[in-house]
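[09:14] KT: can someone run the structure on this one? pasting the chain below
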Amino acid sequence: MKHNRHDDIEEKLKEGLRDLDRVTAAPPSLAEIHMMMAETRKRQRKELIWFILIALCLVTVTLLVLINDPVLYAVGQLLFFIIAGISGMIYRRRNGVRQHE
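[09:31] RB: done, C-alpha cells below
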C-alpha cells in the first residue's frame, strides 16, 4: 500500500489536533495581559519610529533625485513599474499553478 504526501500531512495534522485537545491551558491573568499589552505597545512604537525614519529617507532621496536630475527620476519610475509588472505576472502565474495542484 502506497502512502502519498497528502495522507502523511493529514495524519500529522490529526496528531497535532489530538495533542491540542490534551492541553489544558489556563487563561492568562490580568497582570500577564497588561504585561503583554505593554510589550506590544513598545514593539509597535519601535516599528512606527523605524517606518517613519525609512519613509523620510526615501522621500528625501526621491526629492533630491527629482530636483537634481528629473530624467534619472523618470527612468527610475519606469524601471519600478516594469519590475512591479513582471513581479505581478510571476506571482499570478505561481498562484495559478498552486491552485490547480
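[09:33] KT: thanks! The helical segments are 5-22, 30-68, 70-100.
[09:34] RB: yep, looked fine to me
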